[in-house]
Amino acid sequence: MNYVAVGLGGVIGALLRYAVSVTFSQMTAPFPLGTIVVNLVGSFLLAFLTTKWFVHQGKTSPLMLGVGTGMIGSFTTFSTFSVELVELVEQNMLGLAFLYCVISLFGGAFLTYVGYKVGRRKLI
Predict the structure, then answer these.
(1) What is the distance between the alpha carbons of residues 91 and 96, in angstroms, rounded to a whole number?
(2) How many angstroms separate the CA atoms of 49 and 54, rounded?
(3) Where are the domains of the chain?
(4) Which residue among 17, 53, 90, 96 sits deepest, i.e. has the most Cβ atoms within 10 Å of its Cβ?
(5) Model confidence over 9-62: pLDDT tens digits?
(6) Which residues lie closer than 8 Å to 109 by C-beta, 6 or more apart?
(7) Considering Cα of 108, then 114, then 117, then 122, what sign does the dihedral take?
């Protein structure tokens, strides 16, 4: 059951990533805004959802694996970030490469922290 949940979540996440990346990247080329958006949103969501689930359930469920590992895992992409960073450097767009790297790394870490903190709150 866990493999099916991760696989189905992975299909959904990959399709969502493609849609977001294509939409944003066409508007902001050569800056890879689509990849930044999916990675920042994914950082927040993974921290928030896993914290909420662990706080309420205390164990891993197929739904959690499907959403976390499958959907969010395939929605976010470190490999694309790496390739796009190297492409910016190769095109001698060092300022954009630096900005892309800083936003991706520090923004992702910050939004993971925010997602964790928001997930630990009891809102209801």
Answers:
(1) 10
(2) 8
(3) 2-120
(4) 17
(5) 999 999 999 999 889 877 888 899 999 999 999 999 999 998 888 766 767 788
(6) 43
(7) negative
